[in-house]
Design a protein that fits this description.
heterodimer; A: 402 residues; alpha/beta; nine-stranded mixed sheet; two-stranded antiparallel ribbon; 17 helices; B: 105 residues; alpha+beta; three-stranded antiparallel sheet
């Protein structure tokens, strides 16, 4: 699962990009155009237990997952209403036995398919079958480049070696590869080696994605939060590498918003250009949205069409646009630049999703939260709470020994 | 460890460019326009780019493509060549064009 997909704008908006043309502000003001890309979280099952997982703490069980036929119907409906790309994610999407069938169906109905995977469940044959089914792109998450340290973060032995193997097969099959490196205090020192690893793997793209702190990552914030010095060094390293590797490896960079001056334009704005579908079929403005209590998210199993839910449901309209904003957002000149930041973060840190995201320096709570983060970065325990269906399990032994 | 290899082609009159597997040129029925679908991105090429891209089948050389366009628009061949190479190079630099693989002419 990639935090980047949702935390950065899903589709970068440069001058020639479709976003700026296909989703002009004018059309968005009247009706919200159907997103170009949708994230399908096929399952919350995953062999990894990463402490920063972007899934909700309350994971959806296998028994509640949409069936193969339900997913196919959803994919057809998405293509019909104008979605162009589908990102298959999770949990681990290849934990679904029907993953090849779903990729094939998505391809048949004209969707551009992207697999966001931890890779450890894949075999060469499975990857080949996915390529033959029309898979367009593979994104593999890495927990670092030192096998023992990476396996510790993933909570799964031998996972790093398998990831490397599958990344090589991906390129052998001529599938484009993105390496997604999730960065935090305990692995930021590996960044130069991770960049080289991506080059050696012949990846097309590297996402240097700093952890964003909600859900499992918020639970593990003390163990993950980087220091300000680390972030400054990271930014410098990324900039240098971007210049040096022009034409060889594209590097996308997501900073942790605790250290930014302005909040991130989360999801490109609530209900503006993105939605995801949970394993049980709920249509969500962002995959962390269910952490906000008091919102009723409708499912594809309801009587409503996906387009209706996107356009008309209360959950999508609640924080759309700028009308809902309190001060200091309401009178802020940046209100249509960042749309008030992240609703889930506002809820997690202030108890009200309608507040200004405290990542913003203009939030009255920013100072306090920044200070907390700083203290955690320098004095927090390195011990993880692993992600699982039991609500989390503390790392065995003393994680501080490292 | 091999030295990093540049991925991007340099477009010349003799190039036979083609969209790579991960870039798909499609007509978007909902928005009634052509798009290029690529990893994490959707591009909206203008009408001229679409026309040129449709000629990029991996068999035609840039030279042949310019012939087609020069006849169609009854325009100066050299001017078209300059524009087409610039446009294709721009797309190649962004990773949306590669050189057709087989060696035969």
């Amino acid at each position: 699962m990639s935090p980047t997909l949702t935390d950065a704008t899903p589709l970068p908006a440069v001058a020639t990009d479709g976003l700026s043309i296909l989703e002009s502000p004018k059309s968005a003001a009247e009706t919200f155009g159907i997103p170009l890309a949708v994230l399908a979280e096929l399952t919350h099952r995953c062999p990894l237990q990463c402490p920063y997982c972007s899934n909700p703490i309350e994971l959806e069980r296998a028994s509640s997952e949409l069936t193969t036929e339900e997913w196919k119907k959803v994919l057809s409906e998405l293509a019909e209403i104008g979605v162009l790309q589908i990102h298959f994610s999770g949990g681990e999407p290849t934990a679904r036995k029907d993953i090849v069938e779903l990729v094939q169906h998505a391809n048949d109905v004209g969707l551009y398919t992207n697999l966001i995977t931890s890779a450890v469940l894949l075999s060469r044959d499975k990857l080949k079958a996915l390529a033959d089914a029309g898979l367009c792109h593979v994104q593999i998450s890495f927990q670092g480049n030192e096998p023992a340290a990476a396996d510790r973060v993933a909570g799964l032995k031998d996972s790093h070696r398998k990831k490397l193997e599958i990344a090589r097969w991906t390129r052998e099959l001529d599938l484009p590869l993105t390496v997604n490196a999730v960065m935090h205090r305990q692995n930021l020192h590996q960044l130069p080696d991770i960049i080289q690893m991506a080059v050696d793997l012949d990846a097309d793209r590297l996402e240097v994605a700093n952890v964003q702190y909600y859900g499992w990552a918020l639970k593990n914030r003390a163990a993950l939060m980087p220091t300000l010095e680390q972030i400054e060094e990271t930014s410098r390293l990324v900039e240098t590498a971007q210049e040096r590797l022009k034409g060889i490896l594209a590097i996308d960079y997501v900073v942790p918003d605790y250290y930014a001056l302005r909040p991130k334009k989360c999801m490109g704005g609530w209900g503006r250009q993105f939605f995801n579908i949970s394993p049980s079929g709920k249509i969500l403005p962002c995959h962390a949205a269910e952490t906000i209590t008091g919102l009723d998210f409708l499912s594809v199993r309801s009587n409503h069409s996906i387009a209706w839910i996107w356009q008309n449901s209360d959950a999508f309209n609640r924080y759309r646009g700028t009308g809902w904003m309190p001060e200091p957002c309401q009178s802020c000149e940046f209100k249509e630049v960042d749309f008030g930041g992240c609703r889930c973060q506002a809820f997690a840190l202030t108890g009200d999703a309608g507040n200004t995201d405290p990542a913003c320096t203009l939030s009255p709570l920013h100072e306090r939260i920044f200070k907390t983060a700083e203290a955690e970065a320098s004095g927090g325990s390195d011990r993880f709470i692993y992600r699982n269906f039991a609500g989390g399990t503390p790392e065995a032994g003393s994680g501080d020994a490292s | 460890m091999a030295a990093p290899r540049p991925r991007n082609i340099s477009v010349t009159e003799a190039s036979r460019p083609i969209l790579p597997r991960h870039a798909k040129l499609r007509f978007d029925e909902t928005r009634q326009r052509w798009v290029i679908l690529a990893p994490e991105r959707v591009l909206a090429p203008d009408d001229i780019a679409v026309e040129v891209l449709q000629l990029c089948d991996g068999a035609r050389r840039v030279n042949d493509m310019v012939d087609v366009l020069a006849v169609k628009y009854a325009a100066d061949r050299m001017a078209i060549m300059t524009d087409v190479i610039a446009m294709l190079q721009d797309l190649a630099d962004k990773g949306f064009l590669v050189e057709a693989r087989e060696a035969s002419a």
